[in-house]
Description:
Blueprint: E1 3-7, E2 13-18, E3 24-31, H1 45-52, H2 62-71, E4 75-80, E5 85-92, H3 96-108, H4 114-132, H5 135-147, H6 161-166, H7 169-179, E6 185-191, H8 195-205, E7 225-230, E8 236-243, H9 252-263, H10 269-277, E9 283-290, E10 295-303, H11 305-325, H12 328-345, H13 349-363, H14 369-377, H15 381-393, E11 398-403, H16 411-418, H17 422-426
Parallel strand pairs: 2-6, 7-11
Antiparallel strand pairs: 1-2, 3-5, 3-6, 4-5, 8-10, 8-11, 9-10
Helix pairs in contact: 1-7, 3-8, 9-12, 9-15, 10-11, 11-15, 12-14
Amino acid sequence: MRVQVSKLDNGLTVVSEEMPHLESAALGVWVKAGARHERREQHGVAHLLEHMAFKGTTGRSAARIAEEIENVGGEVNAATSVETTAYYARVLKEDVPLAVDILHDILAHSTFDAEELRREQHVILQEIGAANDTPDDLVFDLFQDAAYAGQPIGRPILGTPETVSGFKADDLRDYLATHYRGSNMVLSAAGAIDHEELVRQASELFSDFAGNAPAAPQRAFYSGGETIVQREFQEAQLLLGFEGRAYHARDFYASQLLATVLGGGMSSRLFQEVREKRGLCYSIYAFHWGFADTGMFGFHAATGEEDLDKLMPVLIDELKRAGESISDAEVDRARAQIRSSLMMSMESPASRAGQIARQILLFGRPIPNEELTERLEAISTERLRDLANRTFHQCNPTLAAVGPLSGIMRQEAVAERLGYSAATAAE
């Protein structure tokens, strides 16, 4: 398998990886524009635009869009994240031209009909309500907002009832015209794909996405903070976090590896200590999110109110120990987990199409798995210990929790137990 990359005259990148053994293909358009690219008054418009793209074009009704793709057994969907929006399809190889045509049509010719807009605004208001009633969704929104208070990167992707209800069709057109430019977009495909034919069709259809990419969004500044919401849920949902590393930072891959060591599976430190040995929760894991200019290193746990006062000290003490006692065996196991995940993703055309699209948007080129593996192999146990000390002891923590929380340790106490000093961090 070989990744091929072409760039159109308008700056749009076409990238594909042929998988000769497959009879189907996954493809989509990834746009370097998401929730953090919105102005304050635009909060939620990126997600609303993603919904409205399927609600009718000048040549296809909403029903016809769904029927055409499903008549050939395909599927089409979309997703909005903090920094990107993706529109993607899965079809048999002979139906790739149809999928490309539909993807172009919904991006270039959507009508944003007023009645459809009102209907979809109502749907999203229901989605916001559902998220607020789902504790493990709500706590992540509270967490992001606490870490980046008052900044676009900290706002919920869905928007608020007030902002979503107020949008007009011209608001969608304005956001689309500003951010959906060729140099800000990638058409990516994997599976049963003919790259030259894909480039030919893209050249014919996507030439109308001209112009330079807009300015970079407001730079993010991690601050840390606390948001505690008492709710009558069955479980307490807890997130403890620290500043992570941006995609281009030296310690980005080391942070991914450290998260796997601490909470990346059933053999990880936190799962073994907190769940298996002590039975203090049903679920606990670690994660590291990278963004263009910042990152988040976090830990999520769900537990009963009666165990909350015991869980947090154990979690914090494990973080304190990490800088001294991470072993070579743990690092080797974490490396194997990440490496196997990379190799397994090679077998899924949908995973590969998304992976190479994001690599183009973030790094300007596809990154071979061999290169990623070499980077992981170069990370020593000593470096991970040092990273743990710098991440957990020299960074103001972020604490978000929702549910029955009478026994929760507050952020100030967490920082004190970790030995965090604002003066030390400033140095």
